[in-house]
Amino acid sequence: MRSLSRLLIATIASLMCMSQAQAFDTTTQSLIKTGYATSQVTTGPFDNKLILAAQDDAAAFIATDGQLRGAQLESALIYLRQTSPKLHASDLELAQAILVQ
């Protein structure tokens, strides 16, 4: 199951590298963006204990639609943005990527 999700993420990432993704509707576009953000974030920084410790905060952030922002999630978001400056993902997309780990 885990290898299937990694394959899906890799496929989406490679498609986005070939050309800009043109989604049929906003739901599909959101899925593509989230998959791309996840693929970008999962390529390395999740070995960091700071990121793994933020999973509970990420779950609360997603469940409350961004209303509850824990300190561990905030630290993880800052870390991800500093270590991956080319990563253009929203806080929600990054929280989803953290939670998937």
Explain what this protein looks like in three dimensions.
The structure is a single chain. The chain has 101 residues and is an all-alpha fold. It has one domain (2-100). Helix content is 69%, strand content 0%. It has helices at residues 2-18, 26-41, 49-53, 55-63, 71-83, 91-100.
Can you give keywords for this protein?
globular; single chain; mainly alpha; 101 residues
Q: How would you state the average pLDDT, rounded?
A: 74
Secondary structure: helix percent? 55-70%
Largest sheet: none
Overall structural class, as computed from helix and strand content, comes to mainly alpha
Q: Quaternary state, please? A: single chain
**Radius of gyration over C-alpha positions, nearest whole angstrom:** 13 Å
The number of helical elements comes to 6
Number of strands: 0
Estimate the strand proportion: under 5%
H/E element sequence: HHHHHH
Low-confidence stretches: 17-23
End-to-end span in angstroms? 13 Å
User: How would you describe the shape?
Assistant: globular
Question: Number of domains in the coordinates?
Answer: 1
